[in-house]
Structures are given as structure tokens and as C-alpha cells.
# Entry
Amino acid sequence: MLPARQQQELLEVGCDEAGRGCLAGPVFAAAVILPAEFTHPDLDDSKTLSLAQRLELREIVKEVSLAYSVSFCTPGTIDRINILNASFEAMHHALKKLSMVPEKILVDGNRFKPYRKIEFECIVKGDGKIGSIAAASILAKTYRDEYMQRKHKKFPWYSWDTNKGYPTVAHRNAIKEHGPCDLHRKSFQLYPPPEQMELF
# Structure
């Protein structure tokens, strides 16, 4: 089972994002402060969990966490400042919304922009190593997936109910056929590369 924190004596917050590699929709980020002693047998990187597990764990995390928040940056912001900076900004928004100030920030990945003057550490594949980062990955992914599910009703031809905005062949071909909408990231390569093109 994953430890909630890296250093139990520090008030650590885990941060992670969801949707960096998508062609459409916002990038979401979450910040979670778990009790130092908290463990759960299923708590892990959100990508390794089933939908049912993610939804169940989301409610557990919301109930037991000392503080949590979820935020996002829009496609327009992503196009303006690039996806990496937008991911950092979404994490900063989530940190700012917390009801308490952490002593250390643990970030999934290998890069981060300092937030205020709080110590931080980047942990590659941290969502599979530290419980608070795993919890943040679950919140970010489930909230983003539900957002894209809602937007699918307005733009059903892109199949966001299944691809959630990621660059599947079907999604790219739908963009080629229907054109992009206002939720697409115009700075990304939206149209299918030749090896993915299908004839209509």
C-alpha cells in the first residue's frame, strides 16, 4: 500500500494533472493533503484503476483528506501559454484553493514552477509511489472525464464519451470531417497524420 506522505512529520500536499496529451478540453489538476497515517489497498495511479475503483476512491479521498481542491486551465489558456505552463498554472490554482497551507508540495513528474515559497519535490511516476499524489491523480482524472462526458452531449461526433479528448484515430478523423470546435487546442496537431487518415 502506498504511504500517504513521503515524510510523515511534514504537512505534504500531492499534486497531479490530467489531460495534458489531449487534443480538446481543459487540463485539470488536483491537490490533496491526506492524513499521515492514511492508507488504502486500492489507492494507486488513476490510470491503473477501473472506473468503479476511481469513483469509489474519489469519495473516500474527499471524505478523509485534510484538504483537497480541483482546478483547470481552458484550451484558450493552453494555446496562449502552452500545455506545460498551463499544467503548472492549473496546479497553482488548485494549491491556492486549499483550505490550509502545506509545508511541502509533492508533484508527479519531473518539472514544476515554484509556488509561493513552499518547498517542492518532483517525483517521476509519483502517482504510483505516494498516496497523496495518487489521490490527486484520481480527482483530476475523474473530474476531467466527467467534464468531457458532459461536453460529448454537445459535440457527439468527436466521441468524447470514450476518448475523453485524447488523440485517437476516430477523434482525429472526426476533426478532419467536422472541423475543430471551440474546445479544441488550436496549438496542437489536430488533423490526422497520413498513417492515421481514413477515407470518407
Q: What stands out?
A: The mean pLDDT is 95.
